[in-house]
Amino acid sequence: MENLQKVKEAWDQWSDTDFAKYRSDERIARLIAKPESAFHETTYAMLQGMIPNLQGKRICVPSSGDNHAVFAFHLLGAKVTSVDISERQLENGALLAQKHGWDIEFICDDTMELSKLQSGAYDLVYTSNGVHVWINDLHSMYRNITRMLKTDGNYLMYDVHPFTRPFGDRTDQITVVKPYDSTGPFGAIPTYTWRMQDLINAMASSGLRIKRVEEMYAEYNTYWFEVSGEREKLSKEELDKLYQWEHNPLAAIPQWLSIHAVR
Question: What does the domain layout of the chain look like in residue ranges?
Fold first, then answer.
C-alpha cells in the first residue's frame, strides 16, 4: 500500500507538471482530427482486425494516463471507461471531456484490483504504453481484466518491448545496464521491467487466449527520444541515422510490443 501511495502521489503531481503538455490545445486538436493517431499504426491495424466497427462497443482503459486512447476510442464511437490510480489525471481528463462535450466515464481505481468495474461488461480492454512498469502483481491485473471482459471479449496491449530493458540509451554501441531477468522494483517510486514470459504467462494463467503478437521496430515518431522531446534537437541527417541499425545498434532491437488476447 505504501508503494502504491507513492505512485499515486507522483502521478497526481506529474499530471499538472510533466504531463500537462499532453493536454495542449494543439495536441488535442490533432487527436480530434485524426483519432487513430493515438495508437501505433500496427496496434491500430490489430484493433481494426478484431473490432472493425467500434460504434457502441464498451471499452475500458485501465491506467489511462494522458487519456489520449480514451478520447480516441470515444471519437471512434465507443462507450469508454477511463480508469487510473491518479485522481488528478482523471480530473484533468474529465475537464477536457467536459470542454468538448464527450460522454466518458472516469473511475479512480487500482489496475491490479479494478474492484469498481463490472464483471463481464466490456467488449475490449486496452492498455497502452507505460502501464506495466507500475504493476507489481501482473497476475492480479490480468485476472481482473479477464473478469471484466465479456465472453469472447478482446484484450489489446501496446507497450515498450521487454527486449529493450537491459540496454542503455547510447546510440553508438550497445551498453548493458542490467540483466534481462532483473525485473525490479527499481527506484524510490517503484517501477518494474517485466520480461516477455512474465507478461504472456500472466495473461495465459488468467484465462486469456493469445491470438496475435506483433513486435515493432523503431519508426518515425515512435522512438524513445521522440517522447522525451529530443527529436527537435536533431538534424534530419542525425534523425535518419538513428533508424538505421548500422549507425545505431539499438535500431536492431524491437522497440514496441502489441499482444491481442481473447477471453
Answer: 2-165+181-231+255-262
